Amino acid sequence: MANREIEIQVKIENSKPLLEYLESKAILKSEKRQVDEYFTPPDRDFTAKRPIKEWLRLRDSEGCSSLNYKSFHFDKDGKSSYRDEYETEIKDIKQVKNIFASLGFKSLVVVEKVRQSWDYQDYEVSLDSVKDLGDFVEIEYKGENDTNPKKITEEMIKFLKSQNVGRIERNHVGYPFQLLFPGEVEWERVKS
């Protein structure tokens, strides 16, 4: 499914072995500063219910802008291993913000980060340094066969473990939630 996103976001104890591995085995795709602003429409507050099911984001990535909507799918434990994602480039981010303001959309939070991204096999592996949150690893599946998101996310964790990164802690909420509701973030330590 072209509009399905399967990814994990984790903190790792030691990024050096992963970085060395990526520099020798993967293709550096980009290193960019990204500013993501999240919005909620006037007719419903995306942040009112837990778990948060939807995000609407404007991204400025060094002059290249995009609009993105995500709708999460949850298991019985309230954890998401995939989401529907719709994204398109936009020509003028300021005009889109003006349109949002005219329609009553409310800005929720701004996430600022520096992201290094590599292509490795069926994955995009990103090292993120996020303002006010710290350093993270995101791995997004880019392969063709995405019929089993749970299995794919398990393979992502297995890949990280094979890089001897030490302790791996995962959350299922993302950067905007962590900034908006830091007291509600639950970190799940991945078993060795």
Automatic annotation (TrEMBL):
PROSITE patterns reported for this sequence: CYTH
InterPro entries: Adenylyl_cyclase_CyaB (IPR008173), CYTH-like_dom_sf (IPR033469), CYTH_domain (IPR023577)
CDD domains the record matches: CYTH-like_AC_IV-like (cd07890)
CYTH domain ranges (all copies): 3-178
Pfam family, one: CYTH
NCBIfam families recorded: cyaB
Protein name, UniProt field: Class IV adenylate cyclase
Species per Swiss-Prot/TrEMBL record: Candidatus Kerfeldbacteria bacterium CG08_land_8_20_14_0_20_40_16
